UniProtKB/TrEMBL annotation:
GO terms for molecular function: thiamine-phosphate diphosphorylase activity. Residues 17-191 form the Thiamine phosphate synthase/TenI domain. Keywords: Thiamine biosynthesis. The keyword NADP does not apply. GO terms for cellular component: cytoplasm. GO terms for biological process: thiamine biosynthetic process. This is Thiamine phosphate synthase. Pathway: Cofactor biosynthesis; thiamine diphosphate biosynthesis.
Length: 210
């Protein structure tokens, strides 16, 4: 079974706060998993970012996962990809990247969770938990009940795959979320936009490990 971190940190496009700087701060704060999420650059710029971030991650022993852009596999030291397209064929993607690469997917309903698990996904970002400005969308908000129901249904069906809550999560949500039986959480805005990046990361890390 592949290593899946319980606290996944996601970079995003922020004016005057580049992805490399975000990754450097996250690693220094103790991040063991960085998801590079940049949807605004062409391949050359993406690769320059990814190669620089990969060096930082290598120095800290941090797993680097790239959002989408699976065509860049093998062009930098990337350990995995997170595919946001909820209709993606993971059986095909798994054949494309091989067994060693970590593949995560996004889902908003239990049917898609089950499909992704059957097609070879290693973990699932399940959300949104709440309204999020980082990744605006029209998907239904899951809330705590959505995660409680999901974990119950998956257990009843003997489907075992790490489920990570994502979307609009605040520090005060973590305890109740983890009590639903999910595996972990993925965080972006609540850390990136905090007054103190290091303190915010530490708060989430401590809350999820409690």
């Amino acid at each position: 079974m592949k290593y899946i971190e319980k606290l996944q940190y996601i970079t995003h496009d922020i004016p005057n706060f580049g992805h490399l700087e975000q990754a450097q701060l996250a690693c220094a704060a103790g991040a063991k998993w960085i998801q590079y999420r940049c949807l605004s650059k062409a391949d050359d710029a993406l690769l320059a970012d990814i190669q620089a971030i990969a060096e930082v991650c290598d120095d800290w022993g941090t797993t680097l996962v790239v959002t989408n852009h699976i065509h860049l596999n093998g062009k930098a030291d990337i350990q995995g990809f997170h595919i946001e397209d909820m209709d993606a064929d993971f059986s095909l993607l798994r054949k494309q990247v091989g067994d060693d690469i970590t593949l995560g997917g996004s889902a908003n309903d239990i049917e898609n969770v089950i499909r992704l698990a059957s097609e070879g996904a290693d973990y699932i970002g399940y959300g949104p938990f709440a309204t999020t400005s980082t990744k605006p969308n029209n998907y239904p908000i899951l809330g705590l009940e959505g995660y409680k129901n999901a974990t119950k249904q998956l257990k009843a069906l003997n489907v075992y795959i790490p489920i990570l809550a994502v979307g609009g999560i605040k520090i005060y949500d973590v305890e109740a979320l983890m009590q639903t039986g999910i595996y972990g959480i993925a965080i972006s805005g609540a850390i990136n936009l905090a007054d103190d990046f290091n303190e915010a990361y530490s708060d989430f890390y401590n809350a999820i490990k409690a």
